[in-house]
Amino acid sequence: MVQTKTEISRRKFLKSSSGVALFIGISGILPQLISCKDPNKIKEQLAQQPLTAWVKLSEDGLITIYNPAAEMGQGSMTSLPLIFAEEMDADWSMVKVEFSPQESEIYGSPGWAPGSKLMFTVGSRTTNSYYNVMRKAGAQARYVLMSSAAKHLEVPIEELTTSNSHVLHGRTNQKINYGALIPFLEMPESLPDFSEAELKNPKDFKLIGKDIPRTEIPAKVNGSAMFAIDIRLPEMVYGVLERGNLHGSKPKLTNETEILAMDGVVRIIPLDYAIGVVAKTLEQALSAKKSLKIDWSESKASGHNSQEIYSTYEKIASQKEKGKVIFEIGDVAKAKRTAAKTYAVDYKNDYVYHAQMEPLNAVVQVAEDGGSAEVWVGSQQGMDTKLGVPKILGIAPENVNVHLQYLGGGFGRRSMNDFVEECAYLAKEMTPLPVKLIWTREDDVTYGAFRPLSLQRLTASTDYKGNITSFSHAVVGDGGNLVASAVANDHYDIPNQFAEWREASNGIRLKHWRAVGHGPNKFAIECMLDEIARDQGLDPLDLRRKLMAKAPRALATLEKVAELSNWSTPSDNGRAKGMAFVEHGSLGTGVCEISVDRSTGIIKVHHFWIALDAGVVVQPDNVKAQMEGGIIMGMSSVLKEQITIVNGRVQQSNYHDYNLLRMQDVPDSIETVILESAEVPEGVGETATPMVACAIANAFLRLTGKPLRHLPFSPERVLQALNS
Amino acid sequence: MVRFQLDINNSKHTVEVAEGTSLLWVLREHLGLTGTKYSCGIGQCGACMVHIDNEPMRACLLQVDNYADGQKIKTIEGLSKNGDHPVQKAWIEAQAPQCGYCQTGQIMQAVALLETNPNPTREEIKSHMNGILCRCGTYLRIIKAIELASKTPTSIEN
């Protein structure tokens, strides 16, 4: 019976010229081979069974591997397929990579929460959460090829090996390319559920850990890489929204007739918080947007002044009543009572904006019968892989097809899919015309969702030997985890620790911003350590050595970077070095060398050195690129970037008043050493950025004796610190 | 609506748009040359860098009316047939892009530099490239790519 079934399947493969997809089930589910010619058949199978379909083979040996993660420059388009190809023993030169369908039941990672399956490219978790998934699936694909080859060659599978897209039989000296096996492919009755021990020994890795060029870079240098903003469809119309600069404000349009009479304007679509205009061309839509006359209501944010709010935050920090406890070990109060010395310092952080280079946008088309929709988008995906579109359109999720495009930067902004929802609203009104919604840069800044403004009040105590006996950390700000994450010091041997969050809500839109709470909180923690070290007459390196005594992996990064940066040799020429440790999945210690122009207050960063332990590193050069980019983005935010709010209104609107770091401000070098490790891969996208504020401030403290405690370190603030 | 004839990448293109329409929208939305990017619209970021008569210019600031008179417009799509201009090759060798959105503008600006100054110093590179923003922070690799390209003897051809 089984035989017959297989025969039928086999004929189907033979007829197919576009190869076969290997649908390899998560344990216990019968694997399938399905002709790629028949997308309906594939969809049917996918709807029926939670299968994992990762690879497509062609008879010419071409291997297409599907990437389930967003690609925003972090390299998922290479790293995840590379892990699969490693275990499959695929010839990498014959591998093509495509985005997988956005179907979380099939391609979601269980790495987020037990039992969950999410497609969600956030938190620098992609490689970590897909590492075992991809390895196992690759090994299973290899097993299918080997078992089919064993039947075809009539030899025991145990005698077969694989190498570079070939199944080899040593005894008879036979060698078959994976592609040539397609007519003979048969699914074994069951697939081994490979345990880690049955996978490749990392010593035998041929792809993982090597410098393999990123697959999507050629398309990014010839202009063919498709971002959602590049999508053009027949009869497409353009949507823009005016959202104002007071978050939460409600609009009332007062010149609708005038707008509707403008060239090319086809529809005005009011939303709760914005007025939408749809026009035949982008320039017509933008021109109409400029002409809108809108009365805006006041909102919760009215009256909020970002630069005056700190005095309120200080009062909140001083209140007796504790906030929400985030982390607690030992007894801080007791430690303080017996302390030889106590310290209390406030650190402050202004709002910062994502400034991803591709402004938010999406393209949505609802089918004429209203029963299905197509979505083109650059998204970091989400808890809902269909990005909120089904609910808005009243269409079942399986009939909403999301075509993921490259992201022109994410940094946390693109895991909030408000822009996709907006486009769905417009597309619903415009059915069946496709709508391209574009946020102008001004929209992107003024209606941004910022890293929250926050105040960190740190207190610490030391004993008579100068040991830190307690450390407590109160975060005041809006947004829960957005401000209160990264307050636990797991790698520092401090027996009594306490961290809490005190809420202060201002009605400003907020969002994860690369490294989230790590930015402000590591700034506070690492600066506090250096302030204590200075007061105690300790070298910051020695202080951290002592604190990391029970955290050997963290300590190794510290020792390595000390060596790399020549820490013990003082800088000359009016320069000084500062260090900071950060854990964000991976562990890293960074050292920078700076100088300061005492007349202008401009800080110059000359060098940055990083020692990193990220577990197994899939793409070493790409990890270095993440360190470089993370440092530059960190420098940009620390030295330049600031969103200010006056009476609830965002004051900045574009790159002329929201300055980013430019090429003339880069350090001479950013040098990364990756420590050898066989541990699971950990994220690297957000480890470098939070090092920057504290490393610079710590260098500044050593250079000038003055602390910098308020981000950004604008020239005015630097001068103020110098003159204090 | 006015008809404009443009000379882009050595071929003639006709568009019918309102007077004063920005060259960026014409290239991207009317002609589908989407390798030239929109990011700020006010000449601050350089993502829309094109060459006009061999000069690097920001398409977002230009009105199509003024460039329909035989001026030779070159976009990233016209830089090389197979993405193998020496500067593009150097970009791949340095693995410069991350998200990639600004990189076509960076490349057009770099090509313009090397066409007039085949062996720039690091300071000249920084100064010439300063107007092009990159949020991913790839600046050091861009410098490396330009230095690699400047060592390629054929870099000013193509």
TrEMBL record, chain A:
Aldehyde oxidase/xanthine dehydrogenase a/b hammerhead domain residues: 222-300
Protein name: Isoquinoline 1-oxidoreductase, beta subunit
Top-level taxonomy: Bacteria, Pseudomonadati, Bacteroidota, Flavobacteriia, Flavobacteriales
A Pfam family of this chain: MoCoBD_2
Protein species of origin: Arenibacter palladensis
Signal peptide: none
GO molecular function, one term: oxidoreductase activity
InterPro entries in alphabetical order: Ald_Oxase/Xan_DH_a/b (IPR000674), Ald_Oxase/Xan_DH_a/b_sf (IPR036856), AldOxase/xan_DH_MoCoBD1 (IPR008274), AldOxase/xan_DH_MoCoBD2 (IPR046867), AldOxase/xan_DH_Mopterin-bd_sf (IPR037165), N-heterocyclic_Hydroxylase (IPR052516), OxRdtase_Mopterin-bd_su_IorB (IPR012368)
SUPFAM superfamilies found in the cross-reference section: CO dehydrogenase molybdoprotein N-domain-like, Molybdenum cofactor-binding domain
UniProtKB/TrEMBL annotation, chain B:
Keywords: 2Fe-2S, Iron, Iron-sulfur, Metal-binding, Oxidoreductase
Protein name: Isoquinoline 1-oxidoreductase, alpha subunit
Molecular functions (GO terms): 2 iron, 2 sulfur cluster binding; metal ion binding; oxidoreductase activity
Gene3D superfamilies cross-referenced by the UniProt entry: 3.10.20.30, [2Fe-2S]-binding domain
SUPFAM superfamilies: 2Fe-2S ferredoxin-like (SSF54292), CO dehydrogenase ISP C-domain like (SSF47741)
Membrane listed as a keyword: no
Domain 2Fe-2S ferredoxin-type, first and last residues per copy: 2-79
InterPro entries in the record: 2Fe-2S-bd, 2Fe-2S-bd_dom_sf, 2Fe-2S_ferredoxin-like_sf, 2Fe-2S_ferredoxin-type, 2Fe2S_fd_BS, Beta-grasp_dom_sf, Diverse_Oxidoreductases
Xref: Pfam families: Fer2 (PF00111), Fer2_2 (PF01799)
Electron transport found in the keyword field: no
Taxon lineage: Bacteria, Pseudomonadati, Bacteroidota, Flavobacteriia, Flavobacteriales
